[in-house]
Write a structure and sequence with these properties.
Blueprint lengths: L24 H5 L12 E15 L12 H4 L11 H7 L1 H10 L8 H7 L11 E8 L7 E6 L16 E10 L8 E12 L15 H4 L10 H23 L3 E2 L5 E2 L10 E3 L23 E2 L26 E3 L4 H11 L1 E9 L12 E10 L3 H22 L1 H10 L4 H10 L3 E4 H9 L18 H11 L4 E7 L15 E9 L3 E8 L4 H10 L8 H8 L5 E7 H9 L20
Parallel strand pairs: 3-5, 6-11, 13-14
Antiparallel strand pairs: 1-2, 1-4, 2-3, 4-5, 7-10, 8-9, 8-10, 11-12, 12-17, 14-15, 15-16, 16-17
Helix pairs in contact: 7-9, 7-10, 7-16, 9-11
């Protein structure tokens, strides 16, 4: 009978990174369940110390043993001629005895004591072992690094507290501790130590709250939570591009600086190189020339509030006209959709709203989509498919990070994502939503509800969280609450726009079918008091080969917020900009 052999575990080779000649910790810690194949391999690893412990060893004293006969009675050497100095030195003990007889202390002759009784040097400090948990950002887990000062000298000035950067060469061995890890690195050579100032290092304290970490956006990526968020964000970024490339979309980069109002509702940041902008006589804005200055845009209908003598200077400005940071890129995407079919863009969008909302910052990243030969129904289906794809991608490609998020942040996050992937989403019109909310008797809404007003966050929350308990797509909004470019429905009161509302999150995707009829678009622009000349290029798309087209905008930062179970968008944006605060 043949003996059963244990199945062989294939261990991938530990290939160093191409541009830094070190092995990522992820390839060591997550390569396989059985790490025995890694034992004995020599690697170079680098990272930052998450925790450190020094264990001092007691000096080893050799046991005394009686001398051998040869050691006790060495053979007498042959006669040797001694010099005068050697003869005098051999008689020093005799001279000391004579001095003591006459009652004179040898301390009276310090020169003799110093010369013939040197003070012994203090013994060297006992060797220590340093146990370091280091992390390089590639994985949730950290690698135990063991440094034996008897083998690898560590200078007294090179203390290794939390935050220290270390690059080390060593051998992977079976862990000597009884913790969760089964592997550790025994250091043979230290290649680099980046010291840290423990008194001023923000992460010296354990478990610093997220709101405190916002004051250190340049340091907080070293925390386990923010590092995990960043890896999820990176994976979500890749997933978004993957979805659209798989469905034949082209990626188009739209401008950040624009001269048009993309929505007509949001406050905008104005871009200028002028030293004087909207200031009265004698006033001087001490602003560095040729820099971008962001000021809240004053709508044309509010120019009367400027007062006498106040005149914006735009002719001598860099662009020669009023320019803003873009609120939306969908209008620019339309021009490419009307030539290439399906296109998308991915980039930052800016709103100068002094809001205290935990789901809004001044600069947010947005995925924007535009599809030619497409109507509202097509856009809603694409948005739902995209959302489900992103949720599934994160669950499939971030198992370790999602496990951490479930343990530390939201225990239900994985279940909720799986649920939203497997179900169909409820679709209701704005009118149906209002009818449902009016019938609510067990809850009082702060904002009085009537047809024609925007649905507030609490209205949307009730529909998604309490009434349907699933994502809800609300469409056909009143024309007064949506941008001018949205297609007017046949009833003349509503427009072809939609919002996707997610439980415990709110609106994540907004979309619409754009107005392809020139006369209808011109009438809507007149209602918003928009300059015909300024939007001439946009109207040209309706004059030359117009086509029905639709699209949507997906709040990328809000998607990261959803995937991580957090509640404040400032914790998932690498460098958040809010009113009165823009660190780094």
């Amino acid at each position: 009978m043949e003996s059963q052999q244990e199945p062989k575990v294939t261990i991938p080779p530990l290939i160093p990174l191409e541009y830094s000649n070190r092995v990522m910790l992820k390839t060591i810690l997550e390569c396989a369940d059985d790490e025995r194949g890694l034992f004995g391999k020599t690697v170079v690893v680098g990272g930052w110390v998450k925790s450190s412990k020094e264990v001092k060893r007691e000096p080893v004293v050799a046991a005394l043993k009686p001398p051998t006969a040869a050691e006790a009675f060495p053979p007498s050497p042959g006669p040797k001629e001694l010099s005068c100095v050697e003869v005098v030195q051999s008689r020093i003990p005799f001279f000391k005895k004579i001095i003591r007889v006459f009652g004179v202390s040898s301390d009276s002759y310090p020169g003799v004591r110093e010369k013939f009784e040197p003070v012994p040097k203090p013994p060297p400090p006992p060797p220590s072992k340093f146990f370091l948990q280091i992390n390089d950002g590639s994985s949730i887990s950290s690698l135990m690094v063991v440094i034996d000062s008897a083998i690898v000298p560590v200078s007294a000035s090179h203390v290794l507290p939390t935050g220290t950067c270390i690059l080390a060469h060593g051998v992977l061995e079976k862990s000597s501790s009884h913790g969760k890890q089964t592997i550790e690195l025994k250091v043979e050579k230290i290649l680099h130590i980046g010291t840290v100032e423990p008194d001023t290092y923000p992460l010296s304290r354990k478990r610093l709250p997220l709101d405190s970490l916002r004051d250190y956006p340049h340091i907080r990526p070293r925390t386990t939570t923010v590092a995990s968020i960043t890896r999820i964000r990176d994976t979500l970024d890749f997933a978004a591009h993957t979805f659209f490339h798989n469905h034949g979309f082209l990626h188009v980069q739209v401008p950040i600086i624009t001269t048009i109002d993309s929505e007509g509702f949001s406050e905008k940041f104005q871009v200028t190189t002028s030293k004087k902008w909207g200031l009265g006589s004698g006033a001087d804005a001490d602003v560095r020339h040729e820099t971008v200055k962001a000021e809240q845009h004053i709508e044309a209908r509010d120019k009367s509030k400027l007062g006498p003598g106040v005149k914006p200077e735009v002719k001598e400005d860099f662009f020669g006209r009023q320019s803003y940071l873009s609120v939306s890129g969908r209008l620019h995407l339309e021009s490419y959709a009307c030539a290439l079919g399906n296109v998308y863009s991915f980039g930052p969008r800016f709103r100068a709203e002094k809001t205290g909302s935990i789901k809004q910052v001044a600069e947010m990243w947005v995925v924007e989509v535009e599809m030619a030969f497409s109507q509202l129904e097509d856009s809603m289906k694409c948005a739902e498919d995209c959302f489900k794809f992103l949720c599934k991608w994160i669950l499939d490609h971030c198992p370790q990070d999602m496990k951490f998020v479930t343990k530390r942040i939201d225990k239900t996050i994985v279940h909720r994502l799986e649920y939203m992937i497997s179900i169909s989403y409820e679709r209701i019109s704005y009118r149906e939503a209002v009818d449902i909310l009016r019938k609510v008797t067990d809850k009082t809404f702060e904002t009085k509800l009537r047809w024609g007003v925007p649905l507030t966050a609490e209205h949307l929350s009730y529909l998604a969280d309490d009434h349907y308990k699933r994502p809800v797509i609300i469409y056909d909004y009143p024309k007064a609450v949506k941008p001018y470019y949205v297609r007017l429905n046949d009833d003349g009161k509503t427009v072809a726009a939609f919002d996707m509302v997610i439980p415990k999150m709110g609106t994540v995707i907004t979309g619409s079918q754009s107005e392809e009829r020139l006369d209808m678009l011109s009438a809507r622009m007149k209602e918003f008091d928009l300059s015909r000349d300024q939007y001439e290029w946009y109207q040209d798309l309706r004059k030359h080969g117009t086509v029905k087209h639709s699209g949507f905008s997906l709040g990328f930062d809000l998607m990261v917020l959803l995937m991580t179970g957090l509640t404040d968008v400032r914790d998932v944006v690498p460098f958040p900009r809010t009113h009165g605060k823009a660190n780094n």
